[in-house]
Amino acid sequence: MSAVSIPELFAFDDLIDDDEREIRDTVRAFGNEKLRPHVAGWFEEAHLPARDLALELGRLGVFGMHLEGYGCAGLSATTYGLACMELEAVDSGLRSFVSVQGSLAMFAIHAFGSDAQKDEWLPRMAAGEALGCFGLTEPDFGSNPAGMRTVAKRDGDDWVLNGAKMWITNGSVADVAVVWARTDLAEGARGIRGFVVPTDTPGFSAPEITHKMSLRASVTSELVLTDVRLPESAILPGVEGLKGPLSCLNEARYGIVFGALGAARDCLETAIDYAGDREVFDKALSGYQITQTKIADMALELGKGFLLAMHLGRRKDAGGIRPEQISLGKLNNVRESIEIARTCRTILGANGITLEYPVIRHANNLESVLTYEGTSEMHQLTIGKALTGHDAFR
């Protein structure tokens, strides 16, 4: 009896249509041909050739692919999720690169920006000619963004921003930053507002964060704003308060629901291939019961995660998804994916800790995915609040 692949076991392709399959396969081929041969080196060197990659990914059409107009493809949320899965099957840093560009920076401008802001930035960002970042998290405020200390104050007709943001993907290579700041209520503004900040504005700097052991094939930065003076036209006119940044985060979290499964799938396929070739006591490692039970359990969790992702994708396309449902997907699929990566590492033994195989790289990356865009604990409390009606955050 010949072995079946994981997608065949679950008949995954029966759940997607021809157009979705074609785009998924196109992104997968791009990843295998253009990214996979280099990604272990990028991870080891803690370097990502962001500018060159941006142009290639722009030509591929994945930046803002789920947005309408301005050079964006206007594809379905499910199609975007499948693309995220294929990008993260190569490396979480690459999916994050695309996600921050499209689901955070571009989405914020697309959803809440003025016509002038959209015209200026979105076509260039879709083409990969301009890169964006999203400044919400601060050194002391991650899970509680309402406590942010970055402030924007009126000075005549201008706004002046002061503060710092932390753990900002693409920050050091971005041309534009969407920065969220607390405004002065006494002067007529309402709470937290978003600003479109060209990164060449005087007073803006973005030192890169180094010495990371996770997401090494990704640019991570601090944003420092020192008397950054912006015109009134820099403010995002379409939203006030935390609704703006949180809606953007839901877009990014949705991509993770699919993306994390790509990393898990790559680990599991690697472990199955390795176990079939590796002989232990004159027998293939995959022929032992304990190996097969590990593989079976991991495949089951991967399949369940994909079914959940597809359900959420269809709900999002129908316009009926709720934030707590995205939390269900992010919590489950990242938690199971990191467990799959760790278990696959045990099958590879000592070989599992080398960059010759992708498993330890995925496991390290998923440590970051587990806590960014909302920690597991925050998603648990979001789900708990939805089920009980009680807010346990405070």
UniProtKB/TrEMBL annotation:
Alphabetic keyword roster: FAD, Flavoprotein, Oxidoreductase, Transit peptide
Catalytic activity: a 2,3-saturated acyl-CoA + A = a 2,3-dehydroacyl-CoA + AH2
Record domain Acyl-CoA dehydrogenase/oxidase C-terminal: where: 241-387
Gene Ontology molecular functions: fatty-acyl-CoA binding; flavin adenine dinucleotide binding; glutaryl-CoA dehydrogenase activity
Domain Acyl-CoA dehydrogenase/oxidase N-terminal: 18-129
Keyword Protein biosynthesis part of the UniProt annotation: no
Keyword Iron recorded: no
Alphabetized Pfam families for the sequence: Acyl-CoA_dh_1, Acyl-CoA_dh_M, Acyl-CoA_dh_N
Residues of the Acyl-CoA oxidase/dehydrogenase middle domain: 133-228
SUPFAM superfamilies per the UniProt record, alphabetical: Acyl-CoA dehydrogenase C-terminal domain-like, Acyl-CoA dehydrogenase NM domain-like
Cofactor requirements of the protein: FAD
Domain of life: Bacteria
BP GO terms, sorted: fatty acid beta-oxidation using acyl-CoA dehydrogenase; fatty-acyl-CoA biosynthetic process
InterPro entries with a match to the protein in the record: Acyl-CoA_Oxase/DH_mid-dom, Acyl-CoA_Oxase/DH_mid-dom_sf, AcylCo_DH-like_C, AcylCo_DH/oxidase_C, AcylCoA_DH/ox_N, AcylCoA_DH/ox_N_sf, AcylCoA_DH/oxidase_NM_dom_sf, Glutaryl-CoA_DH_mitochondrial
Family named by the database record: Belongs to the acyl-CoA dehydrogenase family.
Name this polypeptide is given: Glutaryl-CoA dehydrogenase
